[in-house]
Design goal:
By secondary structure, the protein is α+β, with helices and mostly antiparallel strands. Helices cover 35% and strands 18% of the residues.
Amino acid sequence: MTANELKNMLTVDDIRDLLVNHMNAIISSEDDDKWISDTVCHHGDAQKLYFYKDSKQFHCYTNCGQLDILGVVMGYKGYEPEELQKAINWIVIKLNLKPKRGEFGKKEMISDWNFINQFKMSKKSSDTRKEWEDIKLEEYDDSILKIFQRLYSNEWIDEGISRDSMKKYNILYCAHQSKIIIPHYDINNRLVGIRGRALDEKEIEAFGKYAPFSTWEGSKIITYSHPLGKNLYGLNMNKDTIREKRKIMLVEAEKSVLQCETMFPDENFTVALCGSNLSDFQKHMILESGAEEVIIALDKQFQGMYSKECQEWADHIRSKIASKLAPYLRVSILWDRQGLLPYKASPTDCGLKTLLKLMDDKIYIETF
């Protein structure tokens, strides 16, 4: 019996039986989505081992990070990674399962265990915490926003962003530059940057759609820029929902945050990376947000499911984002396997029905 065959065979009740009756775990709390027990994965006594019923995955919030049932058993029994077969045999015997003849002793090393093992929580992460906490972005005088108009572009309205959403996020308009104005605030509502979304096609062709807003003040140009990797757009507005729902969704652009606000008014748990990479600073902000699951919802940068482009994009998401979060949080990915999105579209671009289909079909990183 292979590891994957065994995991597919086990029910939630089987896993509970193993945990309670054979590893002496104490389940202190349970609801429809999860239960919480003591950390038998490393013989700890803290009630910090979470089991999520939908994915049949564990997460140890004190030491081990993300685990499947085999990982918990290996930690409990003290098996080394190369002793995976011992864990399989132990589970089969304890649950009195019926493997095919000759399967005991077959060696196998599954890819998800290798993946998790590479990204165990390190001491370095906690050592750098004070360093990132001490970083504070420059604050701009928000009186600059008075020069803009509270007008809303039909282009964004046509793309599924309501006027109420733009008003809530203080989206403005600069008439003389023909730009949508996007103020960026940190988690404490300090104005730390202003980005402009160009509407003039010639400017877009020459300089791109998005750029820091610049204007003349006296005899010099002032640019209201900020390091995008040191903030998460929308976190100031959505931090309470993220903590309440214990979920955070990562998108590329501010527009996607506003689209989600339109679809889920005041229940939005989305933030924008303003790019397709996750910085260490942003990672720490996510870990401090109260989320237990992070949903990666980047733009669709491939045309064919089995193309080289698709594989390269999957590798990028895994190495640049997922691997940084997997030791600490459940990680899932919105991956368009059904051809619901156009090339380069965001998962939020095609409306509520499409987004919900993608959410229902999300892939947990162990099987990505």
